[in-house]
Amino acid sequence: MATKLVSSRRRSVLEIQRSSGIQSIGPIKWTLAFCLMAVFILVYFSLWKGVKSSGKVVWFTATMPYAVLFILLCRGVTLEGSLDGIKYYLYPKWEKLLESDVWIDAATQIFFSLGPGFGTLLALSSYNKFHNNCYRDAIFTSTVNCLTSFLAGFVIFSVLGYMAHMLKKDISNVATDGQGLVFVVYPEAVATMSGSVFWSILFFLMLITLGLDSTVSIQILK
After folding, report:
1. How far apart are CA 162 and CA 213, in angstroms?
2. In the chain, domain spans
């Protein structure tokens, strides 16, 4: 199921089939080009007054995703089959701990979500007071990051359980990782709900704010 959806996305959205190979960039996909331009404009106005303007934007981009997560969680747990998805999420497969790929993926996730070594935290922390309690901030940030990832798991797997129930398939055949989950499988499940337009807008608005938050932080370094 996930493979078919990813293939459909590659053909209908990315139009990979129109390119003859890696040596040919192919024609411009204007819908994606306009979306990219819109992102550049948003980032520009978020940074045009430096940290003063970006600080105000971050108040929205950092808190709004939490509100959306709680809303999507409340909706997800009311769907048929959601409990099966949550059980699949919480039930550990201990033998996976012996696989090196699991530890590599976990380390990648932590480094990406916390951002140590990228310079963003160093640049932002330079605006702190000289005697700021950095130890407290580090513990708080790490804890919130872990809890956020844990909460997001409930949001995702409750909907995956619903999709598996609807398709009468095992959750392992529905779930996928990477971009396929965020841009293909989850939106496909949301599209089958009542009020799908509203839930889709909420979900993608959350993704936009998360991406904007990360992009603004990176651009501060420049």
Report:
1. 30
2. 63-220
101 is in an annotated binding site: no
Q: How many CA atoms, within 13 angstroms, populate the side-chain half-sphere of residue 151? A: 16
Averaged pLDDT, 143-154: 90
Q: Is 173 annotated as a binding residue?
A: no
213 is in an annotated binding site: yes
What is the average pLDDT score of the chain? Answer: 80
Amino acid code (one letter) for 169: K
Distance between CA 54 and CA 214 in Å, rounded?
11
Answer yes or no: is 137 a known binding residue: no
113 is in an annotated binding site: yes
| Separation of alpha carbons 199 and 193, rounded Å | 8
CB 154 within 8 A of CB 73: yes
Model-wide pTM > 0.85: no
State how far the Cα of 169 lies from the Cα of 88, in Å rounded to an integer: 13
